[in-house]
C-alpha cells in the first residue's frame, strides 16, 4: 500500500495498485438498477456480450481492436468525391491483402484509437455493474501506461481521457492521476503561444496544422487543471478553443477540417484531409466541433462557447436530412443508395446533444434529437447481432474515404461514443 500512496512509474506497479484499488470499490453508477427502455436494454446486453468476447479474444495480442479490414473501389471513391482519380490517388492507403479483408483490424498502443476499447469497457461496466467488464477495463487501461511518455501526437486526449479518465471516474485511484498529468504535460508542450493553438500533425506540407478533431483532446487539459490546481492547462485549452472558433468556422457554422497557420499566427490555408472537398462539411468533423464546444462550456461556463455549441447543433439538425438522421460520411457527398453513412459521427453527435441538453434551459430539443439517434443506432440496421461483426457493436462507420481507409465498417470510436451516449441518456432522461 505504501507504493500506491507514492504513485507509480512502472507498469507492473501500476497494474497491482490499480487492480487492487479498483476491485475494492463498488460501482458508483448504479445503472444496472435504473429502469431502461427495451431498446436500450437490448443495446447494453449486446455490448456486454461483444466486449467480453473481444477482450478475451484479443488479450494475448497485446493490441486493441480498431475496425474490420476493408478494401475500396477507386471508381466509387471518385464518384463520391466528384473529382478525377489523379487528384487523390496519391493519398490512398495500400489495399489490404485479400486474405486480410473482412477480418479484425488491430492497433498498437500508440495508435490514436487505442483508448477507445478500454473506454468502452468502462462504460459497459458502468451500465451493467458486471465485474468481469471492470477487470477487463482495468487490464486494457493498464496497457496504455507507456502513452504517458509519448510526445508525437495531439491525440493524447483520445488515448488517455477515454481510458484512464474513465478509470478515474468509475474506479478512482490516486495513482491514475499521475498518468493523466504526465500525458497532459506532453499535450500542452504542443501548444504554440504565438499561434494560440495545439499543433495537430507532424507530417505533411502544412506549416502548423490544426484539425477540428483537436477540440476533443482539450478535456484532458481541463482534467489535469482540476487534478493539479494548475491553471496553465486550463488557459491553454481555452485559448485553443477561442483560436479555433475564430478561424475554423464558416458563416453557417460548418467547420473546416484543417487550418494551417503561419508562424506569426496568420492563416496559411484551410483545407480537408478526410472530407469530400476543402469547402465541404465532413460529417465527423461537425460532430467533433459540437462535442468540443459543448465540453468547453461545461468546463468554463463561458457563454461564448455555449453559443457556439448551440449554433453548431442547430446547423447539424438542419443539414442532416437523412430520414433516420444518421448522416452521410460528408454532408456534401452526392446522396445515393451506395453513399456510406457515418455511424461514428452520429454517435459523437448523440453524446454531445445529450450533454448540451443539460446545459441550457430549453434543452428538450437536443435531448430528443440525441434520443432519436440512439434509438436508430440500436436498431438492427446499425446494431450488430451478438457473435457477429468481429465483436464490434455498431456497423457502417467511415474513417477516411478519400484515403481509402475504413469505408463502411465498424470502428472502435463509434462504439465508445455510442456507449457514452447511452450512459448519459439513462442518467439524464429522468
Describe the structure.
The protein has helices spanning 2-6, 11-24, 38-58, 74-81, 116-128, 131-142, 156-170, 174-188, 218-228, 231-247, 283-300, 303-319, 343-357, 364-377, 412-428; strands at residues 64-68, 104-107, 191-192, 197-198, 209-211, 258-261, 267-271, 397-400, 405-409. The protein folds into three domains: 1-33 and 108-166, no CATH class; 39-104 and 283-430, Glycosyltransferase, CATH 1.50.10; 190-271, no CATH class. It contains 15 helices and nine strands. It is mainly alpha-helical and 430 residues long. Helix 14 packs across helix 15. A hairpin with a 4-residue loop joins strand 3 (191-192) and strand 4 (197-198). The model is unreliable at 1-30 (pLDDT under 50). The strands form four sheets. Strands 5-6-7 form a three-stranded antiparallel sheet, with no helix packed on it. It has a two-stranded antiparallel sheet with strand order 1-2.
What is the structure about, briefly put?
This protein is mostly helical and 430 residues long. Helices cover 49% and strands 8% of the residues.
Features:
three-stranded antiparallel beta sheet; disordered N terminus; Glycosyltransferase; mainly alpha; globular; 3 domains; 430 residues; two-stranded antiparallel ribbon
C-alpha-based Rg, rounded = 20 Å
Order of helices and strands: HHHEHEHHHHEEEHHEEHHHHEEH
Q: Ranges with pLDDT <50 over ≥5 residues?
A: 1-30
How is the biggest beta sheet arranged? Answer: 3 strands, antiparallel
**Helical percent range?**
40-55%
CATH architectural arrangement of the largest domain: Alpha/alpha barrel
Mean pLDDT: 93
**Structural class estimated from helices and strands:** mainly alpha
Q: How many extended strands?
A: 9
Q: How many helix segments? A: 15
What sort of overall outline do the alpha carbons produce when their principal axes are compared? globular
What strand line-up does the widest sheet have?
Answer: 5-6-7
End-to-end C-alpha gap: 40 Å
CATH class of the largest domain: Mainly Alpha
- How much of the sequence lies in strands comes to 5-15%
Question: What is the count of structural domains?
Answer: 3
CATH topology of the largest domain: Glycosyltransferase
